[in-house]
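Q:
Just now I want nothing more than another pair of eyes on a protein record. Here is the record:
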Amino acid sequence: MSLSDQSKTPGRLARAWDSDIAWSFRHSPVALVAGAVSLLIILAAAFAPLIAPHDPFDPSTLNLMDGFSAPMEPNAFTGNVYWLGTDNQGRDVFSTILYGARISLFVGFAAVLLAMVLGIAAGLVAGYRGGWVDGLLMRVADVQLTFPSILLALLIFGIARGFIPPAYREEMAIWVLIVAIGLSDWVQYARVVRGATMVEKNKEYVQAAKLIGAHPAKIVLRHILPNVLGPVLVIATIGLALAIIAEATLSFLGVGVPPTQPSLGTLIRIGQGFLFSGEWWILLFPSITLLALALSVNLLGDWLRDALNPRLR
């Protein structure tokens, strides 16, 4: 690395640290707590194989005699102690939460990414081209908005599973779930990007690019796209929380992640069956984890929305 590069690096870091967004984050207690909680859960899920005391999906490590162990109490038969107790199969609840959060986060991030790609592409095309293309895409979006997203995800999930051979349904369940949630959430991205694109395409820098003969695809991707990503990031942050909740809802209903790869929603569904028999911890701790994750991501989205709003600076 040259001396000039070394001198530029601290300057860039310092400018990023002193930016309006970084300053707003450092001076927002809610954003700091929400970011810490989100980061903690994400890191714990990412390093679950290193953190979890047991692998809850390895049958050779399970002991049915450890089933229904209460939190921090020795099991009556084996004497083993588990921080958050065990479920009916003797699986450590703490370990299942870590592994379940991995699946929930993966589905949430992948579904948001899919919805963003589809929505941004549709919004850019509709806003820049206009005419019948804009009318067609927006009418499709309007029709989709008449259906609740969870019901639409259920419909897409059911149709997609119908085309998959039974032998591959469990293997493809997570990917089908991602597609179902992503296709049900692209509309909000498309509408926001379309509106921003219609504003940007009439500005001087776009008109100048047209005058010098730039290709429309280059104008859209190089000039317009970077200027419409601000609202998209806010929607994506809040959409991540909604996607995680949608996955948990579908899994709770029994049409999401298969029981062999349980997510937080599947764990809540399993725990709900034992709530009234006294094993409250099987339901409580996965529910608290899902609530903390969704709430912290939502609060981060609210903070980012305010931080990117120039009227509130």
In short: The domain at 27-53+86-312 is CATH 1.10.3720.10 (MetI-like fold). The CA atoms of residues 154 and 255 lie 8 Å apart. The chain has a mean pLDDT of 86. The first helix runs from residue 3 to 17.
